[in-house]
């Protein structure tokens, strides 16, 4: 698109304005000492927020988080409005408004939901280990909530109100694509002069200029009396697992598998065969499927390969019959799955010893495809219990892309591999879609990020401007407003969406608090 002369003039004026603002903005020398004193209260806020299980859809925990925030915000002068999410999404979105006497408005966005299952908060409660505060969801994104609340508390203590308004928008469903809040985010962003997004940064202080679009690819293989649906699904995963290598700056990771095929060996004669059940349990390592899949060990991929290699081993024993009854693992689409299992039933002719057959198949399954995986094999006499299930074979992959064109290329690569059927009788259906658009900072947003970098340097730190991360965030919805957005204003930390200990770095809290407060001051005071 060709820029008009007026648009170029506006952008040039904005760039000059931000550059001059960075040089002219006078830091409040009292903010850093106050931020240092605010560190302990902020940690108590994080302790309170992480005491709730607030995974997407967990209404009681989301209500607990919302109630805590509401009480805190009212105590520091915020006007709180509860907004029901669209599309029957659980929880309540919060709009918190602070009115001032100035002309500029700032929107602060963060999300209350996490990726953790019910019971995680009690099992892994808040604790401090050296410079780390540790708890599920403490960085992503309860750190953003805490930073924004306490930054406004600092500005209140300094009597600063030179903004027209500062609005906080805390939502309930970012981890699942914000179907219940995206319209609210867009409308609020349009109504403000600038947006600060509270997603965490990594252990190094930084802000993000671009995020990835997030897609999901779902595959179903129809189960039936003569189908080998679980074997086909396992092969689908293995033959498409490297599709992203063909498309630069993309990622695709299989994260969920649910397969059950009750049509098994029970129809065989008990007088001709002995039966056994062989169960493989897989322990990998969870990590964020978009941001840091390399830190995980994918239990679903390993399980798919167990199905492949055990099936191959049984095929070399012609008289042995093997049928896969169950294979599955993973919890949500954006986590590299930590655990999975596969259950096979065996039939061995009565004139043949069962033990060496089980040992050979268990050995084949236990060899391991992925480094760091743990596999256990258990055997039992007889067939598994009968299931009333009709049979299903389903798998889902998380996809990350920089733009729509890259997504189309990734889908083509994946579909081409999925279409290479292992069994001619297999019926495979594929669904895909991009449910989180990428975020790419505008020229104005880049200038605001540069302003943050310069302010942070004057506060004694080094702030990295990351061109892009593989996360998908609400900055994408805010950015569709056309207003400038600065991403990753939450706390430095790590191990998001992980079975390892999610953490924030305590010694970075004062500077990040002061940075957010100074950014609000700088935006509010520009002409």
UniProtKB/TrEMBL annotation:
Residues 276-364 form the Peptidase M20 dimerisation domain. Residues 1-23 form the signal peptide. It holds the Pfam family M20_dimer. One of its GO terms (molecular function) is hydrolase activity. Its cofactor is Zn(2+). It comes from the Bacteria. Gene3D superfamilies: 3.30.70.360, Zn peptidases (3.40.630.10). Keywords: Hydrolase, Metal-binding, Signal, Zinc. Transmembrane segments: none annotated. InterPro entries: ArgE/DapE_CS, Bact_exopeptidase_dim_dom, Peptidase_M20, Peptidase_M20_dimer, Peptidase_M20A. This is M20/M25/M40 family metallo-hydrolase. It comes from Caenimonas koreensis DSM 17982.
């Amino acid at each position: 698109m060709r820029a008009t002369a007026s648009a170029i003039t506006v952008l040039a004026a904005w760039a000059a304005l931000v550059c001059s603002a960075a040089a002219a903005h006078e830091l409040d020398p009292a903010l850093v000492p106050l931020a240092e004193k605010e560190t302990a209260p902020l940690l108590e806020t994080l302790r309170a927020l992480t005491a709730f299980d607030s995974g997407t859809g967990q209404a009681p925990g989301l209500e607990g988080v919302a109630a805590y925030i509401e009480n805190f915000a009212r105590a520091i002068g915020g006007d709180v409005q509860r907004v029901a999410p669209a599309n029957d999404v659980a929880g309540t979105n919060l709009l918190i408004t602070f009115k001032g006497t100035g002309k500029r408005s700032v929107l602060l966005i963060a999300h209350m939901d996490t990726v953790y299952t019910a019971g995680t908060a009690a099992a892994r409660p808040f604790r401090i280990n050296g410079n780390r505060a540790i708890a599920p969801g403490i960085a992503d994104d309860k750190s953003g909530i805490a930073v924004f609340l306490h930054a406004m508390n600092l500005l209140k203590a300094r009597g600063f109100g030179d903004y027209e308004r500062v609005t906080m928008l805390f939502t309930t469903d970012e981890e699942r694509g914000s179907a219940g809040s995206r319209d609210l985010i867009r409308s609020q962003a349009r109504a403000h002069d600038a947006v600060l997004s509270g997603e965490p940064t990594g252990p190094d202080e930084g802000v993000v200029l671009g995020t990835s679009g997030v897609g999901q690819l779902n595959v179903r293989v129809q189960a039936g009396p003569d189908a080998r649906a679980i074997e086909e699904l396992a092969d689908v995963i293995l033959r498409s697992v490297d599709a992203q290598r063909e498309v630069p700056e993309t990622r695709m990771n299989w994260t969920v598998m649910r397969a059950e095929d009750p049509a098994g060996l029970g129809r065989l004669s008990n007088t001709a065969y002995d039966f056994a059940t062989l169960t493989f349990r897989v322990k990998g390592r969870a990590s964020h499927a978009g941001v840091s899949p390399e830190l995980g060990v994918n239990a679903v991929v390993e399980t798919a390969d167990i199905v492949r290699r055990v099936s191959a081993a049984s095929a070399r024993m012609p008289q042995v019959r093997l049928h896969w009854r169950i294979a599955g693992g993973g919890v949500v689409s954006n986590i590299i799955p930590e655990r999975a299992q596969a259950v096979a039933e065996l039939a061995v002719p009565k004139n043949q010893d069962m033990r060496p057959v089980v040992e050979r198949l268990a050995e084949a399954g236990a060899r391991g495809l992925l480094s760091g995986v743990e596999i256990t094999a258990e055997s039992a006499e007889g067939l598994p219990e009968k299931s009333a299930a009709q049979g299903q074979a389903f798998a889902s992959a998380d996809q990350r892309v920089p733009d729509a064109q890259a997504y189309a290329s990734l889908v083509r690569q994946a579909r081409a591999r999925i279409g290479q059927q292992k069994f001619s009788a297999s019926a495979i259906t594929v669904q895909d879609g991009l449910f989180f658009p990428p975020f790419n900072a505008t020229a104005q947003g880049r200038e605001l990020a540069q302003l943050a970098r310069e302010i942070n340097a004057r506060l004694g730190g080094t702030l990295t401007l990351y061109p892009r991360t593989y996360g998908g965030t609400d900055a994408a919805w805010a950015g569709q407003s056309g207003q400038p957005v600065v991403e990753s204003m939450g706390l430095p930390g790590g191990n998001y969406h992980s079975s390892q200990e999610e953490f924030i770095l305590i010694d970075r809290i004062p500077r990040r608090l002061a940075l957010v407060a100074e950014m609000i001051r700088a935006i509010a005071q520009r002409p």
